Every structure is written in structure tokens, then in C-alpha cells.
Amino acid sequence: MSDLKLETANTIIETAFAKGAETGLKPLAVAVLDAGGHLVAFQRQDLSSLMRFQIAFGKAYGALALGMGTRAVDTMARERPHFMAALSDVAGGRLVPVPGGVLMRDGSGRLIGAVGVSGDTSDNDEAAAVAGIEAAGLVADGG
């Protein structure tokens, strides 16, 4: 059973959207996964482009799969492209190795899940994810 509740996931999504509106970001899509990689909640803003679910999910899934935020995964992909290509194959193409996938931890450091945001630049996607996680009272680990 997941420790991540739907109410918490919805808070994360609402806050990420509010951060996007506050900073003038393009329409966002936000996927919230529990520690086991199961989707808890997903929403996309009106006018978000095609494949935003797959990208947001892939960022969160990649963070969980590798145990690090996708900022660190991005660095790894640049330093070890053959490894990342092989890993993507093993994962069925579900990893998106760019910033915007952020692990969530509780106050004791225990992994709760991950958030993936897609729609603007990777840095802005990551900032929206962090804002949502922190609003839910959790600790963001972007890598």
C-alpha cells in the first residue's frame, strides 16, 4: 500500500500549476508516482501539447528507477550515453533523462515517490515540481 495519498498528489499538481501561472510558463503536465512507480495522479493544462503525459511520466519514472532526480540523470546521460541508451532499452523507453523528474522524501529521508513535469524548459519544469512537493510538506530531491 502506498504512503502517497491522492489528496497529497493533487496538492502537488495544483501548486505546480500555480507556479507555472505565476512565472508565465507554457501549459504544463504533471505526473505523480508513488515509490513503487505507480501513477497516483496526472493532470495536464489546457493547450498542453501532445505526448506530455509520456514525458512527465518518463521523468518521474526515470527518477525512481535510478534513485536520483533527473538533473543527475541528465548529467549521467551526457557522461555515459551508451549506458543511458542501454538503460532506456531495458526500461522499454520509459526514461526521460532531463531535469523535471524530482524524487519526494519525507522528513526522515524515506522515499515517498516522484513527480514529473513537462511543458516548458526542463529547468522550469523542475522548479514547478519542487514547488508542488514542498507545498505538500515533503522534501524535493531533484538530483
From TrEMBL:
Descriptive protein name: Heme-binding protein
Organism: Nitratireductor arenosus
Domain of life: Bacteria
Pfam families, per database record: HbpS-like
Gene3D superfamilies associated with the record: Haem-degrading domain
